[in-house]
Amino acid sequence: MELSIQSDDGGVVRMQIKGPVVQNKLQPAAEPIGDMLGAGGYARKVVLDLQGAEFIDSSGVNWLLRCHKRFRENGSRLVLYGIPPLVMNILKVLRMHLVFDLARSEEEAVEVAQDKAPSNPRL
């Protein structure tokens, strides 16, 4: 998995994942988002483009769930968008589409992150 920051306008950080989000790509206590954003990173609003995520396994879902929880605990949001059909199917089988903040596009994700639009768990 390759995680990168696409832009940071001071209000919303746009990040992108490329490659499979699987156990052998993530260390058990890995904090790639927190490490990239630095101190106070989980208090930021982040939209994460999953379009390049070829696959996600249960460890990848667990990592996203931990990130989601940390953002919520810090009064912020992590919004996922650009979700490939295979990844979405996995999220739906695990019923995680009901937990995560999801959006259809980057624009919608930014609006959800800024609390200007509700997330759409039924994507």
Task: Give an overview in words.
It is globular and about 30 Å long. The chain starts with a strand and ends in a 10-residue tail after the last helix. It is built from four helices and five strands, in the order ββαβαβαβα. It has helices spanning 32-37, 58-73, 85-93, 106-113, and strands at residues 2-8, 12-18, 45-52, 78-81, 101-103. The chain is of the alpha/beta class and 123 residues long.
Estimate the mean pLDDT confidence.
91
Q: How many alpha or pi helices? A: 4
Large-scale geometry: globular
Show unreliable segments: none
Oligomer: single chain
Report how far apart the termini are: 24 Å
Q: Total strand count, please?
A: 5
> Major sheet: order of its strands?
1-2-3-4-5
- Major sheet attributes: 5 strands, mixed
Quickly give the structural class: alpha/beta
β-strand amount: 15-25%
Overview features:
123 residues, alpha/beta, five-stranded mixed β-sheet, 5 strands, 32% helix, 24% strand, globular
Short description:
By secondary structure, the protein is α/β, with parallel strands linked by helices. The chain has helices at 32-37, 58-73, 85-93, 106-113; strands spanning 2-8, 12-18, 45-52, 78-81, 101-103.
Topology:
Layout: E1 2-8, E2 12-18, H1 32-37, E3 45-52, H2 58-73, E4 78-81, H3 85-93, E5 101-103, H4 106-113
Parallel strand pairs: 2-3, 3-4, 4-5
Antiparallel strand pairs: 1-2
